[in-house]
Amino acid sequence: MDGASGMTVRRYPKTLVIIPAYNEQDSIAHVIGLIRQHAPFADICVINDGSRDNTGEIAESCGAMVLHMPHNVGIGAGMQTGFIFAAQRGYAVTVQNDGDGQHAAHEIPILIDALMMSDADVIIGSRYIEDRGYITPTARKVGIVILSRVISLILRQPISDPTSGFRASNTRAITFCAAHYPFDYPEPEAVVLLVRAGLKVREIPVTMNPRYGGVSSITPFRSAYYMVKVIMAIVIGLLRPVSRQ
Questions:
Q1: Which tens digit of pLDDT belongs to each residue from 149-167?
Q2: How far apart are CA 205 and CA 202, in angstroms?
Q3: Residue 45: beta bridge partners?
Q4: Whole-angstrom Cα distance, residue 160 to residue 86?
Q5: What is the number of other CB atoms lying within 10 angstroms of the CB of residue 233?
Q6: What is the DSSP letter of 172?
Q7: 209: closest CA among 79, 107, 110?
Q8: pLDDT tens for each residue of 31-63
Q9: Which end of the chain is more exposed for a tag (fewer CB within 10 A), N or C?
Q10: Which of 98, 17, 99 has its CA nearest to residue 58?
Q11: Local structure of residue 88 (DSSP, 8 states)
């Protein structure tokens, strides 16, 4: 209870927002500012993934904790570093938030509320449960649809947006991801790995914004190539034993 206003103040668990960032100097300050505005209870950790620009320096000047990777290790290894950091520092919740400004910071508390009020270990923010105006390029959308159907079939549960990088994880998932996290195609592979390990993954609808800065490296050819490669990686991964939680 806030004594001054008489209003009930929502208390959140110890939360770390992990921002994997590679050459995001045009957007990182904007992203950090919005997170501070909409999730002031959360600490922020930027994984500066070998950026060749001033991403790390700008993030530090904004007051975020910054882990500087020695070179560009990729989002999978970067996120695992964030999970290890969160586990070592005793965070109860992590939120993965991209550094390009596409994720709506005001929905971070919504992700956490969904995590805390359900039996889920991971909540994924999906662009495709509801139509909120986000337009996915055709080639990329076709790849995501095919990938979501394959993963839904494997897991025997619907997954509409396996490539979403907007996710909240609880302590159980943080511990697991600190020890086991895929490097090649981390978002979709992680969904399969988590469910196979006995963790519960759920989706909720979220809003996706256009990139605040920079240019996406995803072309129609890369979208098709990515979809084929990730399906192959998932199929191969099914052959490996998984430690259940």
A1: 999 999 999 999 999 999 9
A2: 10
A3: 18, 65
A4: 27
A5: 17
A6: H
A7: 107
A8: 999 999 999 999 999 999 999 999 999 999 999
A9: N
A10: 99
A11: H
